[in-house]
Design a protein that fits this description.
336 residues, eight-stranded mixed beta sheet, globular
């Protein structure tokens, strides 16, 4: 199964959520091969996985210079847009080779800032009239890469689960990420922008409510017989809780997010995994997110206490840590 973590709004916690879900899933399922594809030009997820702030950044810079990144692969496909290179597995990084804290069964297709520059070229090549399937061929670049990498690490008794961290903008590389995803997880924060982003999901991904969008990605995908990803869940992320439930203010905004999501489901129920949308809630991680990201340390390895973050030593307290772990574990149970 391939999960895309995407919302058209930034700042909703997609990258840290991708880090937590992929590492916790790998830890809980040691016989499963987990592949993480970083499709955000900022490549923050890659930096975290490869060692955190500082160390991870240095490792990532080396991979970018060697072009052993998703951008490096797209460089190769730009010169050969309609056929695979045969060297796809060479872009896969075994994360534990760089960060000993990460489970042994997790691999990374590293992010790359060049995705921003490549977006225009991707649009140009996919718009060509010849060959007839140019648009489809180009939009399958990431899918080609993920499938080839997965096959290279699978065994007879193993399967692969992929997590794709997506950029908020629905740029060309995000279209490739959607084409490679079978399910999407949509994290939302408690604000009006997240509510509007749900409507944007319906327009950008499923062509609802706007004639311009209806002739865009979704329509082209349908023309070429490509499957659009189904909504696995809308994740109410970073909620402020009171007595173990979202506060009234957060709850009110989440109710509006749910209403808009249900409105989309009524129009295109075929794009939702369950007949009733799966809503989950994960509380704000506060210091947990800061410490894990800075140290490249998975959630399962974090204990209560103080941790060095530059010149500060933030405290992780037992109760919020356990609450966060509990909600993450409950959500992981919904994944295949």
């Amino acid at each position: 199964m391939r999960y895309g973590i995407w919302n058209n709004k930034g700042g909703v916690g997609k990258t840290f959520l991708s880090f937590v879900l992929s590492t916790e899933y790998a830890k809980n399922n040691p016989k499963v091969r987990v592949v993480v594809a970083d499709m955000c030009p900022q490549a923050n997820l890659s930096e975290i996985l490869l060692g955190g702030n500082g160390k991870g950044a240095e490792v990532l810079d080396k991979q970018i210079k060697k072009r052993q990144t998703v951008g490096g692969y797209f460089d190769a496909r730009i010169t050969s847009p309609h056929s695979m290179t045969g060297r796809e597995s060479g872009y896969l990084l075994h994360v534990k080779d760089f960060n000993q804290q990460i489970p042994d069964n997790l691999w990374l297709i590293a992010g790359d800032p060049s995705l921003e520059l490549q977006a225009q070229v991707i649009n140009q090549i996919s718009a060509q009239t010849l060959p007839e399937k140019a648009w489809k061929n180009v939009h399958n670049w990431l899918l080609d890469l993920v499938i080839a990498c997965s096959k290279s690490i699978e065994g007879r008794e193993t399967k692969t689960v992929t997590f794709v961290d997506c950029n908020p903008s629905f740029s060309a590389y995000t279209e490739l990420a959607m084409a490679a995803s079978e399910r999407i997880i949509v994290p939302c924060s408690s604000d009006g922008s997240s509510a509007r982003a749900i409507d944007n999901m319906g327009s950008l991904l499923y062509g609802l409510g706007n004639q311009v969008y209806s002739k865009g990605f979704s329509q082209k995908a349908k023309e070429f017989g490509m499957s659009l990803p189904m909504v696995h869940s809308v994740l109410l992320n970073r909620s402020t809780q009171y007595n173990r439930e979202a506060s009234k203010a957060f709850g009110a905004m989440f109710d509006e997010i749910k209403r808009r999501t249900e409105n989309i489901r009524r129009k295109v129920p075929e794009y939702f995994v369950d007949s009733s949308v799966c809503f989950s809630e994960i509380p704000d991680g506060h210091s947990v997110a800061v410490v894990c990201s800075h140290l490249g340390c998975p959630l399962f390895s974090i204990n209560p206490g103080k941790y060095p973050i530059y010149d500060e030593r933030p405290q992780i307290n037992p109760e919020p840590l356990e609450r966060y772990r509990k909600h993450v574990a409950e959500f992981l149970d919904s994944l295949y």
